[in-house]
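Provenance and format

Records in this collection were gathered into a single text stream. Each protein contributes a sequence line and a token line. The two records reproduced below are adjacent in the stream.
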Amino acid sequence: MTGVTERWNAVRAEVASEAERRGRNPDDITIVVVTKFHPVSVIEELLDAGATDFGESRHQDAAPKTEALAGRELTWHFVGQVQSNKARAIARYTTFIHSLDRDSVVEALRTADSQVGGFIEVNLTDDPGRGGVNDADEMLRLAELIASTDTIDLRGIMAVAPQHDDAGRAFERIATLSEALRQAHPNATDISAGMSADWRDALAHGATHLRIGTSITGNRPVQG
């Protein structure tokens, strides 16, 4: 086995073990392997090793990868910020968008050719310039707009823990917001949270989708 395959098997085993330790079914946890900046060959190796879900964050990189792998059975997740003028194009190849954060993106997706699963992104920092809604009121207002959009299936919420802060405390807030969202939209039960450094904290607070990159793919290739 090569390094990528070994790392995938190790992370998958660690996630399963941690889920069972917390009384959760490992089959209910989706590991989204974030492959941004990595070549198609890495994704092909991971597919052969049993990975099924992959995340990309830039349309210009994701589109050619999805085209190159059109003959393979896999699920694409778009995990980066969505530009409104590219939303329809992204919806053509992705199954899930994890970063719905403003009206213009939702409105752009209203006329998409296919339905996508959508997560509302929450901003857990004090920086208003970061992507994501800032509080429960904004989240619920955007959720109502999404719920009125036939081309989006509201799945839950997404967040990135702030750097240099307590990830557990951040994900505790996400769990509280997720409960508020479920009260208004009972089918929106998913939580997309946790990356290579903090997925255990996210899992402890109900994460259903872990977005793990470096721990599986290794360091990003140097960009020219």
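Adjacent record:
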Amino acid sequence: MADQGVDPGRRRFLTATTAVVGGAGVMAAAIPFLSSWQPSARAQSAGAPVTESISKLQAGQLLRITWRGQPVFVVRRTEQMLKALPGQDARLRDPNSDNPDQQPAYAKNAHRSIKAEYLVLVGICTHLGCVPLFKPEVMAQPFDADWSGGFYCPCHNSRFDLAGRVYQGVPAPSNLRVPPHRFLDDNTLQIGVDTEGAV
């Protein structure tokens, strides 16, 4: 009769206490482990929207902004630049920006922007990720005798027009991407937030 000296109440108490202490230990170990899965403050701030003043951006100029570690180009186009856009359609791979991954719906138009005057693009070539050069001059270039301004990628000679649309016969497969963005007012651009409810 080995069970005669065993107190069943004490056994239940010790079992319950061990389970509670063990559960608390598991929770104490799990909280830091699960917290390590959360993005760091630096990573969260890198993905946060970026607000930038465009009040000093002159017609024909480009402003570079960093968003999510990527360069974003903001170009204030002139009337001449906008008038030149339709004349390039026959030379472009996707003149109507039919690929929905290239821009939000509010930028699927002839100028690929919310406001025709301002172009907002992720400044990364869609071929192998180089950063294209801004070449706004309407003049013959070594890479294109009929150049009407736009972006030129020196890595593998991809070319994009002043709406970020890719030319035919170049390595880049698609247009430059338009990031989500909105105008908070006439002089303030926010990148990383869609335009719904904005100016």
